[in-house]
Amino acid sequence: MTALRPPQKPFEVTGRLVLVCIVAFFLTVAAVNAVMIRFAVATFGGVETESAYKAGLAFKAEIAAAVAQEARGWKVDVRRESGGESVVVHVTVRDQTGLPVPHLVAEIDLEHPADKRRDVVMSVTEQSAGVFCATAQAVGQRTLVVALTRNGERMFRSVERIVVR
Question: Is 141 a member of any domain?
């Protein structure tokens, strides 16, 4: 003869089970949000413009600087060489008559298009009057910014998108 089993209770959805399921669901959502926030904060460098209002006010000054730069009629030759992970930039500055422009200070940067934390300030050496050479280690798409100043006043600025291979 077979042993008789007592009848089993059917599965019931109780208030306690519903509470545990809801709490578990929201804890899972909170954990995933915490991980996503951590990754977002660790990989995004922040906004590029600190104050859009101040940048807008400076626009008129930028236009005046561009007009003055064009009026000087300088011929600025920017050549770049890249090999491996290094970049060499040669800048030659000549006036309207073809003579080298003296007493300039050059600042040459390789800016990352999306993350200012990955910008590279190149080490610049003046080889002679109006002739500069800069080197740096960088790879990928960059923005080459060449700025020439004299006595703290910007005389020339050039911005060019490049790919360093």
Answer: yes
Q: Which two tokens stand for residue 79?
A: 């050549």
To the question of pTM greater than 0.70 for the whole model, the response is no
CATH number at residue 112: 2.60.40.730
| C-alpha span between 9 and 6 (Å, rounded) | 9
- For each of the chain's 165 residues, which pLDDT tens digit applies? 567 788 888 889 999 999 999 999 999 999 999 999 999 888 776 666 778 888 888 888 889 999 999 999 999 999 988 877 788 999 999 999 999 999 999 999 999 888 888 888 899 999 999 999 999 988 888 999 999 999 999 999 999 998 887
Domain count along the chain: 1
Place of tokens 């545990």: 20
Q: How high is the pLDDT of residue 5?
A: 80
Q: In whole angstroms, what is the distance from residue 62 CA to residue 51 CA?
A: 16
In a domain, 40, yes or no: no
Residue 62: inside a domain, yes or no? no
List the domain range (segments joined by +) for residue 96: 74-164
**8 Å CB contact between 93 and 79:** no
The helix (run of H) or strand (run of E) holding residue 120 is: strand 120-121
Whether residue 78 lies inside any domain: the answer is yes
